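Hey, resending since the last one bounced:
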Amino acid sequence: MISAAKQKKRAKANHARKIDTQLPSAINVEDHVKARQFEIKALFKAMDSAKSASSTRAFQSLPRHLRRRAASHNPMRVPLRLREKALAELSAPGDVSKLRRKRRKLLRTRMKKQQSSASRTATLRKRQTNKSWLETHIWHAKRMKMANLWGYRVARHPTEKSFRPSIRAARQGCIVHDASYTSLIQLSANQDDILRVLTAVLDRAGESPSSRRYIFGTREMHSYIYQLNAYPSAIIAPISLIWHPADGVRDKRSVWLRCHPSASAKVLETLQIAARGGAGDAEMCGDAEGATSPYTSAVTILNLTGHVNTFDLYGPHSSQVLAGAFKLAKENGRAERIAWQKLAKAATPAHLPTGFVAGFTVDDPRLSFPPRNTKPQKDKPIGVPLTLSTTLASSGIYDAEERRRVFKPRYKKSQLDSRRSVTAPGKPLAMTADDDTLPILIVQKTIEGGLKDSICGYSLIVPAGWGMQVWPSLTHTDARIGGVDQVDQFAAQVGAAHFPESACPTSTANWNEWRRRASEEEERVMKRPKGKRPHYHSPLPLVPFLEKPFDEMVVDAAEDVEVAMDGQLPTQPAERDPEEAKNSFKTDTNTSQWFMTDELVRLVQDELKKTKEAQEALNTTLSCLQVNKHVSVKDALVQVTLVPVKRGYVDTCGYVYNQGETVGRIATSTFAMNEGKAVAVANMRAETYFDFYSNKPHLERNVLVRGNDDDTLREYRIYCLK
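The structure tokens again:
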């Protein structure tokens, strides 16, 4: 029971605390929000910060493509502004003893390294005993899966998921790949002597290296190289050829041949034999630049592998990446400046002529770091007459003295950082007379296949010694990074074969590649328990061709294999003893079997319009090419693009059936994102292919395909060359 006095005292206190107010009849919401705009924004920002801090770690604030695996447990791998937060996340509240012990351990390790006599360069060189590192190796090793391939330690693919993002970048953005492992061979002599050597070993069904389209050095030529006087059999590898620009000078010309490193030794040997047989005697000698120069007579052959760096860019935004990474030097002429401006504004490299070659001189890209991409002008292609000129195609990178001059950058990165520290933040360094300028070469490239689709880009060639000086400017753009798996993936997306995995199936390089893959697959399978191993129909499932090209693929020409269009399984090939299969697998190809290139196939198809006999059409075509060699169409292979009629997917090494017999094997297969269905490239009997082309309309050129470890038959349609 509360007394009356206490009740009066409580009422008096409540009345004293009451504030008389009068609410307005209406509120102007817009004015009310504007008056409190700062407080509202601060509230939302605080809410977002609290939510992010409680659900994400410090290293997760970085973009996914810039993260490294070590950042999750090493606070020194995150940016300085986030390092304090990373330290707080790693250490328990009030307990930093573990972190201190780790710091002391790192300090002792660092002191031991400083006391050791061996330098960092000498230590790293010991790890390159059986392979070579690219200049960007350490950068890639932190972010990519590495592998020993073709004598190099190359990046296979990014550590993150990259199948769809890489294709999306090649279609809508840009993806960069370090292809500095590409072999480079230079031929120097009189123009007629060079043409004599090239004609003896290149594909005669394709375009000639003496064509006005390529002889002036304004375009890159693509062809195939064969053993001397062995055409159309004994194919070695595909090559690309660039003439050094010259205005009507025939006495002293040079040409660059670029090829895959898996076949570089065979290509170099073939060129040496052709030069010795077609251009007189030759003797071994050295070269002042350090390259091997086997011949000093009519034709001089130099192996310039490792004297330049090559970076491949794929995607419609490749032009903007180049324009953002480099800044033209003052010594460029008016033609180069106009071409550079048009190149920077190009909507896609497809607007340039195929194989277009241009040379520029650029400033040190580190001076203008970080790069700023330009904006493309959509639907405005570049004018062709301006781009095709010997003046624009000329570059100092062709000159050995120029490459030697810029081999070592004049300033280190630390020296440039010291200059940058005294300038305004975000402002690029001003070019001085002592700063480096370097020559570059830009080559337009296009990947085309059996589908109505292509992927375009550039090959950027820079002097050796500038790999890590140029690479950050290319990667700190919107471009993604790809490895050798991505390059193979792009070719498969458009229905094209890629060397050495699937192109040139009768070449030694292709055989070695499949043997390596078979060994890796066998090792992977044998690690699993017997009850968990998949059942394969042949001991070496990933080898499409054994001792005889159709030993496992065709079984026997006289043996019929029952195949029904309703999806029933055909008779299985007879299983062979594993030791017998391994012994029959050789690194050298069968001399009776040969591969028909697309150019030769098109010529034979033209002759088939006059005669229905494939062998007669082939003989007529070879006689027109002045090839005095009789080869059988029954021993020939062609590569075709296969697309499923309905749904389904068949992996690599699947069997291709037609009317009761095996007529081919799947060389590569993938899911084409642009088509929304599977696409495969198959090695097929030329005789069966020409029968399809001559006697069946397009909609009836169907075959059955069965997976290597799958019993399901799927109907695929063949896309013949046009």
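Residues 278-288, 292-296, 539-590 have pLDDT under 50 and may be disordered.

Sorry for the duplicate.
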